[in-house]
Design brief:
mainly alpha, Arc Repressor Mutant, subunit A, 2 domains, TetR_C_Proteobacteria, DNA-binding, HTH_TetR
Length: 223
């Protein structure tokens, strides 16, 4: 018989059922994104259906909709996923120990590799196609180019705060550096005039762009 004066132990919450639910969901999401990236590059936005994405990912169409809602959202998430993979956030964390030029070179090489990849060129051509509506272009811009610009601007602002750069408008400076990195090589690729640049061309393009940028924004000695 229980002593009524003894303290009553608090009831334990029911144990959560174990199972592969969450990892399985994450695996399906990754499979859907991989399928979407591949199909959007191969067939363009309008040529891809949620049915074809589901079939390639090995999931039901209902599962695709439950993860992403609609095709526009899935497209922008595919763009964002590609950008994060090729330009991870860690690239834009200011390195207190490393030289500024080295870190800008790392960012520059990653950015140049991304924009000159066959996948990126294909998606950008889709965005330039007359049948692509402005809303989709805006969603693409926010998920891809705008994310990169904002991350680079924040990085530059941190270096300005350390006195390593002298920049009044870091957002504009970030756009300037990305434009330098694209250069004529990227324009030629978009027009189909040349294939992916050789490594030596990429090294020369990134190095010249970073050096030009640093000369433009190096701190000036006080007058």
């Amino acid at each position: 018989m229980t002593d009524p004066t003894s303290p009553v132990a608090p009831a334990k919450p029911p144990a959560k059922a174990s199972g592969p639910g969450r990892p399985k969901d994450l695996g399906k999401r990754a499979a859907i994104l991989d399928a979407a990236k591949s199909l959007f590059v191969e067939q363009g936005y309008n040529g891809v259906s949620m049915d074809s994405i589901a079939a390639q990912a090995g999931v039901s169409k209902l599962t695709v909709y439950s993860h992403f809602g609609d095709k526009e959202t899935l497209f922008t998430e595919a763009v964002k996923s590609t950008c994060v993979a090729m330009l991870p956030d860690a690239l834009f964390v200011p390195d207190a120990e490393g030289p500024l030029r080295d870190q800008l070179m790392g960012i520059g090489h990653a950015f140049f590799s991304m924009i000159t990849s066959a996948e990126a060129v294909a998606v950008q051509r889709v965005m330039m196609a007359p049948e692509t509506d402005d809303r989709l272009r805006e969603m693409f811009w926010v998920a891809g180019p705008q994310r990169t610009t904002d991350a680079l601007a924040d990085f530059l602002q941190a270096r300005v705060a350390r006195g390593e750069l002298e920049i009044e408008d870091c957002q504009t400076a970030a756009l300037q550096l990305m434009t330098l990195l694209k250069g004529e090589l990227h324009t030629h690729m978009m027009c189909g005039l040349r294939p992916t640049p050789a490594e030596c061309d990429a090294n020369a393009q990134v190095g010249a762009s970073v050096d030009f940028f640093l000369r433009a924004y190096a701190p000036r000695p006080p007058a």
